[in-house]
Amino acid sequence: MSELTRRGLGRAALAGALTTAVAPWAAPWPALAQGVNPIRIGCSMSLSGGLAANGRSAQLAQRIWAEDVNARGGLLGRPVQLVSYDDQSNPANVPALFTKLIDVDKVDLVTSPYATAMIAPSMPVVMQRGMCYVALFGAGVNERLKYDRYFSMNVTGDDIKGHYARGFLECTKMLPNPVRSLSILAVDNDFAQRAAESVRGMAREYGLRIVYDRSYPPSTVDFTPTIRAIQAQRPDVVFFASYPPDSNGILRAVSELKLSAALLGGGMVGPQIAAVQAQLGPILNNLVTWDVYSPEPTMQFPGVVEFQEKYRARAPAEQTDVLGNYLQPYAYAQMQVIAQSLARVGRIDQEALAKDMHANGFETIVGPVRFSALGEWAEPRNLFVQFQNIADGDLEKYKKPGTKVILYPPALKSGTLRSPYGAPA
Amino acid sequence: MDPTLSLLLNGIVSGLLLGGLYAAAASGLAVSFGMLDIVNIAHPALMVAAGMAVVLVGTALGLDPLLVAVLQAPLFYLLGTLLYRAYHHFFERRGDEALQGLAFFFGVMFIVEVGLVLLLGPEQRFLDPDYAFVTWRLGEIDVPLRMLAPALLALAAIAALWVFLRRSFTGLAVAAVAQDPEALRLMAVDPVRIKRIAFGLSIALASIAGGALVVVQPIEPGSHQVFIGRVFAICIMGGMASLPGCVLAAFLFGVVENLTASFYGPSWSPAVAFGWLLLVLAFRPQGLFGRLA
């Protein structure tokens, strides 16, 4: 082995720098100034790496919002400019990017990257600078920090353990026959473990005995042995808390082994994504899973159809989720919250904005929103939907009602439960 | 059949099938890392790039993903030779291949991932042939063709490579260059050329592995991260330069992972599989089929 010299180390550094210097190219250049003194809103977003699929589609939704606002004359008479950097789905990059946004770029406001794992590392920087912070799809981030200027655009609410799985278990009451046994499989990450904790805690209340309760690492490639072990327990109800692409692997294994259950699904992240829907096709039939949006008549809030038309027109060129039925309306609504609060306060004042957000509600394209003391949604709205009437991987049907039928909450219910999973649709 | 016995047999069979995929991913590395001593950490990323190419070409032409993987393998061979030229010119020639070479391949890995995101987007891509939805049932044993077909192709490709390495002059030279490049030079054989050929072959195997991966699961630009630890572990467990050892280690890894998942839960699978690696290295530091230096 060659001896490491200072020159050698320099070459190594150069080699690394030359080859990794592409990273900043992946981040979009900060938008050019759009006139005099724009309101600058900054964030880091996962535009590459594991979270990029959702990060890029969230960014497209935010860009559509900025264009809509600027077309109407901007905010407080000033144009809006979005400044974002690619955090590469790496939580370690987030604090430095937020420091740059606030201290160097001097943005007026900050919004969060997508999801808990990326929001959490941004919190110390945001809190030190006293910024009002509207986050996207964070779950329980502020539970211990109790930062009074944190607000979360997510349906899970303050108490994930107490609320998350309620809707899924309520679906057991819609079954023709009583169910007795429950199996739980959850990926080893924060959100899925909270989801599993929620269903575990409420199982007894619904008369369910837990016959299988395991976690799996995110690096799992083959789910057939795990699904076979679940099958051996013959559970009536199967609850998965999974992330893509695991959700895909789990459902493929369920289909291959012909696992059937009166109620199967749970907290699966993946079936909401267009690419997964296209691939799995009829395998999704009768799956009951957590969701945040479905184009059912009960969720036609003002503005959402117009947003989705704009989004769907641009998504193919942007190479991101072509349907926009998941977090995309919430990313747009996240920015609506900022806009409405700014309009009420009349100036950029972090403290005043936070007080306004605590005190008032918001009308958004995902419906009316009000925040709790912790900054979560005051009223949780975990949807549980069932996939129905799917014969192939064509995505057009997902733009219309009747494919992702809402079973819970009752106020948004749009169809009836079909059981079991695994039976011909 | 007794349910426990059924779980056991199915765990072994599914583990062997999973091992086929691992063998596909690790065999290329057994050539570059094991025989040529090139720490190509970008190998799984190139496998995913090959998988993406399989999806694009297969979708456009309506071809089977495994067939596309075989057809595009020569192109990946050429890519491998170009990559080796760059590596040799900038690092190996100067004797800087250790740390600098690692940094180079780390950079290549990063460029491949980000390049795929920029070119194709971060979304999952898939190409499912009809047989991917078929499961053969042999009594109580389930054999999904989604796992069987890629495993068979992988084993065929590895067998062909093994015959080439054992029977042809160039193949024997590849084995020789791993041991003593100077001796090879004395026999009027250019070791750099031989290494270039061998590295090209390792990347061609990444193409086969990419096609196999597409049949098993949808892929995204970051999918390679799941395989980095496994393929290096399998390569080391098998005995570095040994293709049969690599295949055996891949099967062992797959079976241990799946049996652990069946009986003790999937959380324990990686720990037990990597624990086996430690055990093998404790009793056979040279790996299953390796030779002591």
Notes on the structure:
The complex is a heterodimer of chains A (425) and B (293). Chain A contains 15 helices and 14 strands. Chain A is of the alpha/beta class. Chain A folds into two domains: 34-158 and 317-369, Rossmann fold (3-Layer(aba) Sandwich); 161-297 and 383-412, 3-Layer(aba) Sandwich (Rossmann fold). In chain A, the strands form three sheets. Chain A has a seven-stranded mixed beta sheet with strand order 7-6-8-9-10-13-14. Chain A is globular and about 65 Å long. Chain B has 293 residues and is an all-alpha fold. Chain B has one domain. Chain B contains eleven helices and two strands. Chain B has helices spanning 3-35, 43-61, 65-90, 99-120, 145-167, 169-179, 181-186, 191-216, 225-238, 243-264, 269-283, and strands at 135-138, 141-144. In chain B, helix 2 crosses helix 8 and helix 9 runs parallel beside helix 11 (269-283). The N and C termini of chain B lie far apart (48 Å). Chains A and B meet through helix 1, helix 2, helix 3, strand 7 and helix 10 of A and helix 1, helix 4, helix 9 and helix 10 of B. Chain A: One of its GO terms (biological process) is amino acid transport. Chain A: Keywords: Amino-acid transport, Signal, Transport. Chain A: Belongs to the leucine-binding protein family. Chain A: This is Branched-chain amino acid ABC transporter substrate-binding protein. Chain A: InterPro entries: BCAA_transport (IPR051010), Leu-bd (IPR028081), Leu_Ile_Val-bd (IPR000709), Peripla_BP_I (IPR028082), TAT_signal (IPR006311).
